[in-house]
Amino acid sequence: MTEAIREVSGLGPTDLTDAILSATAPLVLRGLASSWPMVRAARESDRAGSDYLRRYYQGATIGAMLGGPEAAGRFFYNSDLSGFNFQPVHAKLTGVLDEIEAKSAMHPAPTIYVGSTTIDTCLPGFRQFNDLDLGRRDALASIWIGNRTRIAAHYDLPDNVAVVAAGHRRFTLFPPEQLANLYVGPVDFTPAGQAISLVDFLDPDFDQFPRFAEALKHAQTAELGPGDALFIPSMWWHHIEALDPFNVLINYWWRQSPDFMDTPTNALMAAFLTMRDLPPAQRKAWQEIFRHYIFEADEHTAAHIPPNARGALAPLTEDGARALRTQLLKRLNR
């Protein structure tokens, strides 16, 4: 029921255009990083890929997640959503790589996963030979390492280019408007920071989650191998399966907004506190206020107010953001 994500091929690490990196739909960039030495090593063998990472590692402690074989690679909650089915640990990367290799023949194996670790801290020098040119974008480059794993569908605020450097990964993406059909779990108690879909994509329970069938009608999928990349637009839901005994993903996150802008998640959490439980008529009134001032705001919204008197209605600047933050803190702390 899913459709394939649109693909382009023939691009290299220096060929990414603004049109690609500011798109609002996902795009597979087939072979984008084929020239990376890391990719060439991983295509040779898992051991060669692992050894390539080791040459840059200088001993920094990293965070990892460990799950038992019964989890079948799925990092998730426990049965009543009061905790999780994995254990976070601090470890050395060499130990993680040794454990992945030692368990490579097991299936199912204990699940081992290093998530979102800053490359420049963990593997200094790696990006000198394995990197993308993203132009003026100040992207955060992270590495993800593990064996066969499944990461539940979630969204990220930044735009993202995800590069498969070793192994194969299957991506299933949904546009933001499928939120209600993905049966998302708690927003303030999550396995890794982002709210996730509670649906098991490999064994969906359509009795418990009937609207997921509608979500699948809008899903887009792709399977990527070493050197392939995927552009994931901001706020698109994505479910990721690592399919091989040894998998490495490099991803780049950046926002299309200034650094001084806070995350909209703060506004959502404040709305839970201040608006969600208002009487319906009042919620509807606030919906109109947000439509006017936020979601459909344009140059006419405050045109009737002299520019020097617009305050929070003026275009946001770094000084304006600082002033708004101060006002909010005062209001929340009174």
UniProtKB/TrEMBL annotation:
Q: Which residues form the JmjC domain?
A: 112-269
Write out the coiled-coil annotation as residue ranges. none
Which SMART domains does the UniProt record give?
Answer: JmjC (SM00558)
Report what the protein is called.
Answer: Cupin-like domain-containing protein
Q: Name one Pfam family in it.
A: Cupin_8
The species is Duganella sacchari
InterPro entries, per database record: Cupin_8, JmjC_dom
